[in-house]
């Protein structure tokens, strides 16, 4: 896997959970939402189209499979998948399990209220959960 440099804002706003074959999986540091960030471990990637076709397919595969597994486990109402990059240009893929009782439902999660940081022990629990849910994706 090619080394890559994680954008400083992504590093500040998220917690590392694990590395999949293409993406680093990170947890957004806002306990109000089940919000993962997938960052392709490639240098200088801004758009999905900067990835090869096989990497594009892999990105979609990792995001949708992990998202659907997390949605099922948490009993989510909707899975939101998005790439924006307006504030952080490094390509990153938002995977957000939405619940009808979450702090922003039914609107978008961006810019709503004040983020509530995850306690360290909860981040560890997320690592364990995502490691288990991602096991089928680790084959490559």
TrEMBL record:
Any coiled-coil regions, as ranges: none
Domain HIT, chain residue ranges per copy: 36-105
InterPro entries: HIT-like, HIT-like_sf, HIT_Hint
Pfam annotation, one family: HIT
Source domain of life: Bacteria
Name by which UniProt lists this protein: HIT domain-containing protein
UniProt lineage: Bacteria, Pseudomonadati, Pseudomonadota, Gammaproteobacteria, Oceanospirillales
